[in-house]
Amino acid sequence: MTERELDQVEERWGFRFAPEHRTLLGAGLPTGSSRWPDWRDGEPEDLAERLAWPVHGVLFDVEHNGFWHPDWEPRPTVTQDALEVARTYLTKVPVMVPIYSHRYLLADPDRTGTPVLSMYQTDIIYYGSDLVDYFHHEFGRPVPTREDHQYAAIPFWSYFLD
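That's the SMI1/KNR4 family protein sequence above. Prediction below.
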């Protein structure tokens, strides 16, 4: 993708790619599987769903599995009220950008080396200590244990990893 195309994606969707993610997409937009987000020609609905996936997953667990983050105010007893409060908190969490399927990287143009997370509702695990490590594990070597790597913290999302 060109710099102009990347800028247009960031403008349209309201986030900034991490430097290494931007470099990857600038070198070549992965294609050949619906698991890759198509930032150039993808359906807007698909991209919107992928970008919303992490937050929607947390909301699903608030509604159906009783999840409540310990840093939030006390959970309202009525589920719809709890969802409303959770939505308010979730508007402030860092944006996670899809890389492949349900693997996500922090959207932060000022940070490199943040971990890639596998995100499915509040079942969130490390899938690479950074983007390069992620590609080795997703498409080659087995995923290391947490003890094998030092992982950078991601506000809010790292809670699910402890």
